[in-house]
Amino acid sequence: MLKIGLLGCGRIGQVHARSIAQIDKARVSAVADAVPDAAKALAKTTGSEVMSPEALITSPDVDAIVIGTPTDTHYDLIHSAARAGKAIFCEKPVDLSADRIQDCLKLIQDTNTPFLTAFNRRFDPNFANLQSRIAAGDIGEVEIVTILSRDPSPPTISYIKSSGGLFRDMMIHDLDMARFLLGEEPVSVYAVGSSLVDPDIGRAGDVDTAAVTLTTASGKICQISNSRRASFGYDQRVEVHGSKGMLRADNMLENTVEIATETGFRKAPAQHFFLERYEAAYRAEMVHFVQALVENVPMSPSITDGLNAQILADGAARSLELGRPISVG
Ligand SMILES: NC(=O)c1ccc[n+]([C@@H]2O[C@H](COP(=O)([O-])OP(=O)(O)OC[C@H]3O[C@@H](n4cnc5c(N)ncnc54)[C@H](O)[C@@H]3O)[C@@H](O)[C@H]2O)c1
Question: How far is the CA of 117 from the centre of ligand 1 (A)?
């Protein structure tokens, strides 16, 4: 039985606790949070022990650590956990600085630490199916990928200010999806962005509406469209066009009922946000993490995937600043 320590008992920590509860070969043995009541509440539902983050990391009752704390704490926690010899499941983004992720990468390699970067969308049954069909050659050579990714509503301005900006906080998922589907590293990134949803987001130095074009060395293209608002729910769609056809994954709706009247056809809104939309993906990524540890095989996405997505996010931010495409890679 793999004993997992959860660092951070907030939104995503609770998601991971629910996933672990459904896996036979693993259990949550300890939880820690900067807010004692948050840790106590999750300890109660998981039947685990409350510890300080330091005690959890070095506890003999913990084999692997899930880092679900705010992004600016990941770097130190990764360092402590790797030095303590624990396997690491780290929430995205690994850090907001590519240089600091490089430091973590070196330590992970030096200590031979199993590490998963939690890009959950790779585990979404629809997107995973789409990628496996690309890999099987079902649409021939990939030519152009289109990723549409829009949140139902923007986060608070205080979150925006500490988030690292839309490219590093939100689009990082889509930049990883682009790499996953293109099967080739982008060499150029061109970003445009505006604050159309909330002018306060602009005043906080960020954008809430953005489009990015990535190009690979062989000329494959990916277009990403992001917004912090979608009036019809969480908009998560992907289309891949190739030499022999096209693959498309549509939104997951709240239900599949369609009504037709004299005014036309109508369906339910898209599932509200990531907790509902990616429930199966979160579970599958945790199953993968546990299975890889139990069977002692490599896990993916790796910390290098976390770094490469970060380099693209940094490139997008720089491209927006300079108003021209940026070379990356
Ligand atoms: N993969 C995804 O879909 C997804 C979704 C949401 C959040 N995230 C990522 O997960 C991380 C956490 O986000 P969240 O939305 O759950 O935040 P949150 O604020 O809901 O929860 C974070 C928790 O960590 C605690 N905490 C803060 N510093 C700590 C420390 N040093 N040690 C222990 N606990 C500490 C806080 O008290 C809080 O309870 C972020 O990196 C975020 O980018 C990923």
Answer: 14
Ligand 1 atom at shortest distance from the alpha carbon of 73: 31
Q: Tell me, rounded to whole angstroms, the distance of Cα 255 from its chain centroid.
A: 25
Regarding the beta carbon of 71 and ligand 1, being less than 6 Å apart is answered yes
Cα of 71 to ligand 1 centre, how many Å? 7
Dump pLDDT digits (tens) for 108-130: 999 999 999 999 999 999 999 99
Q: How far apart are CA 92 and CA 115, in angstroms?
A: 12
CATH class given for the domain over 122-281+308-327:
alpha beta
Note the pLDDT of residue 236.
98
Task: Give the pLDDT mean for 162-181.
Answer: 97
Domain spanning 2-113: CATH 3.40.50.720? yes
Cα-to-centroid distance, 299 and ligand 1 (Å)? 22
